[in-house]
Amino acid sequence: MFEAHFQTFEEPESGVALTARLAAFREELARRKLTGFVIPRADQQQNEYVAPSEERLAWLTGFTGSAGMAIVLTHQAALFVDGRYTLQAAKQVDAKAWSVESLIDPPPESWLAEHLAAGDRLGFDPWLHTSAAAERLAVACARAGAELVAVETNPLDSVWTERPAPPLGPVAIHGTQFSGEAEGHKLKRIQEEIGKLGADALVLSDSHAVAWTFNIRGADVSHTPLPLSYALVPKSGRPTVFIDHRKLSNSARDHLEQSADVAEPEALAPDLTALAQRGAAIALDSATAADALSRLINAAGGRALRGSDPVALLKACKNATEIEGTRQAHRRDAVALARFLAWIDREAPSGTLTEIDTVEALETFRRDTGALKDVSFPTIAGTGPNGAIVHYRVTRKTNRRIAPGDLLLIDSGAQYQDGTTDVTRTIAIGEPTAEMRDRFTRVLRGHIGIARAVFPDGTTGAQIDTLARQFLWQAGIDFEHGTGHGVGSYLSVHEGPARISKLGTTPLRRGMILSNEPGYYKTDAFGIRIENLELVVGADIAGAEKPMNAFETLTLAPIDRRLIDLTMLSEQELAWLNDYHARVRREVRPHVDEATKVWLDAATAVLKA
């Protein structure tokens, strides 16, 4: 009945094969006279999702998370992960071969300072690290009296004999009926920004920036319609797009050539070198540009200007066409979600459903819309203790049956041509405990605190992050991830530069779309997260002395009433919840079948204190 087309449930490789790989890798390092090497979870553009040919960290260690780093020395090897992946990493790697360490606090450089010896030669691939990351490694090596060595070719690739070929996903034109702005107009805005930077040219090292600027999409990585590519944009004149020609149909090539020259990726280095030899100042995105690019520019006599890619902010502020598209995408997604949640409530109490069943069902309901291009990330469906693993991905080995008394956490999203969605709901299976209801209600109050926030122009995500945590803190608890991330327009579900987190320093601007997803996780017991996407809009406040902003909630899906302790909600919070449910019912009800209507009416019924 149900099936998943866009994700698999196979178990990652582990065991003896991985131990043999580590031994072979150490032999290759010795052959190259290196005493260690750094393996980031990264491709040349620091993408979140990388092609199979770039999954070096997973191939060597067995760890399949979306962020991490390994350092292999002659007698020690460590895997570094953040708080999202601590539990997952411990289960995936061989504890005899690898220690699992913190990626953030303390950072890997602290571990290096302890384990490097004077005279050691630590290798790194300058195409897989930003310049800032390379500089941090260099400082750690210098402190230990060791040397950081930029390699010409990656030694891991020499031992990865069955490494897949690079991807060749076809490029599609993303028309102005979806993008809302022609590429020529975007280029004028970008060239104005290049002028403000005092640069002669800008390297677009982030494929998302290339896709947005030139109104193209691709199929080179999972779950994000990304055409792996670069562009070089001069402050005046025609830019050049560097992309494998095998990805381009005649129409896609014609589209690009209306506003740019088109060259193979191999032409980027000589073109940059030629520009740098004329003494040019070339702007690079410090977040995504490989250290190799800075080295190349500086070696040729140019000036590498590292900073924020101006395209990131232009892309983050959606125009009217993109905003209307994302509203349509969320209404469409809401129909699939209502059908799914109604199905869960019918089927889960029997005790026969598994986590994989829910993933397959939700994707099927989304495919039934006729508009689904992909899921926007692998669905997280964790029941009971699996729900406490923040970035859990179900496999056939970990697949758990959903039992009465469980909480089911399901975090999922869709890629539609007019918009990208991301939504999390926590569902009570049977009767929840008092503790579950208390924790859920605290998370809900934080979620409502963000949704109802009103804030002046210039406010950053860090300034409002506390609103999501305040009720958890009152109980002495917290969650170890950010409250929200930016979301693209038929692009990455995780988009910078703005976010709602302790690290969110970019001011929130009108037109930005961010997630609102506080949570709580009790290890080996249950997990709770409530996530909607929010659009930053202007707030009309009588007597306001400065421009004010607020959030418009885009996601339309009932929040489980059975998990709410109404005695904990304020009058305003209860009013928000009832208003939200009334809106969900109004917008979704006309588009679902009779059985789902009955369920939806009950799931969104007015709550009274």
Automatic annotation (TrEMBL):
Residue ranges constituting the Peptidase M24 C-terminal domain according to the UniProt record: 548-605
Cellular component, GO annotation: cytoplasm
Keyword line: Aminopeptidase, Hydrolase, Metal-binding, Protease
GO molecular function, a single term: metal ion binding
CDD domains documented for this protein: APP
Transmembrane segments: none
Organism in which the protein naturally occurs: Bradyrhizobium canariense
Segments forming domain Peptidase M24: 325-536
Protein name: Xaa-Pro aminopeptidase
Family: Belongs to the peptidase M24B family.
Keyword match Secreted: no
Residues in Creatinase N-terminal domain copies: 21-152
